[in-house]
Amino acid sequence: MPAAEERAAQQRRIVNRLKRARGQLDAVIAAVEDGEPCRDVVTQLSAATHALNRAGFMVVANAMEDCVANPESPRDGMTTEELEKLFLALA
Predict the structure, then answer these.
(1) What is the block-wise mean pLDDT of the chain (91 residues), using blocks of 10 residues?
(2) Which DSSP symbol is given to 67?
(3) Which among 47, 43, 52 has a CA at the least distance from the CA of 18?
(4) Residues near 58 by Cβ (< 8 Å), separated by ≥ 6?
(5) Is the separation of the CB atoms in 53 and 20 below 8 Å?
(6) Among 9, 75, 81, 87, which residue is least crowded by beta carbons within 10 Å?
(7) To which H or E segment does residue 78 belong?
(8) 63: exposed, middle or buried (C-beta count within 10 Å: 0-12, 13-18, 19+)?
(9) How many angstroms separate the CA atoms of 73 and 68, rounded?
(10) Model pTM score
(11) What domains appear along the chain, each with residue ranges and CATH number?
(12) Cα angle 68-87-59, degrees, rounded to a multiple of 5
């Protein structure tokens, strides 16, 4: 698959993951508003958190992959060290 198509596919996967997280966050809000038990709220909150973390890792992983594949290309002005810090911020 050409690089542009792969990048577009990755972007779609990230957007889909973020939309899933948004749905999970909506479920958390609804559970709190409806007075659902704490266990249910925390379970939904955990799912939303996990989905957001996975999306963040995907974003950073794509940037790092681009960094390795194209060391001479600009990466939004980010250095390898900055990418590493972003990755660690998610961990």
Answers:
(1) 82 93 94 95 92 89 76 67 80 75
(2) H
(3) 52
(4) 10, 13, 14, 17
(5) no
(6) 81
(7) none
(8) middle
(9) 10
(10) 0.73
(11) 3-90 (1.20.58.1000)
(12) 70
Q: Mapping DSSP to helix (H, G, I), strand (E, B) and coil, where does residue 44 land?
A: helix
State which H helix or E strand residue 54 sits in.
helix 38-69
Tell me which amino acid residue 40 is. D
In which residue are the tokens 């958190």 written? Answer: 49
Contact call for residues 27 and 44 (beta carbons, < 8 A) = yes
Residue whose token pair is 């660690």: 88
Report pLDDT for 35.
96
Cα–Cα distance for residue pair 31/62, rounded to 1 Å: 34
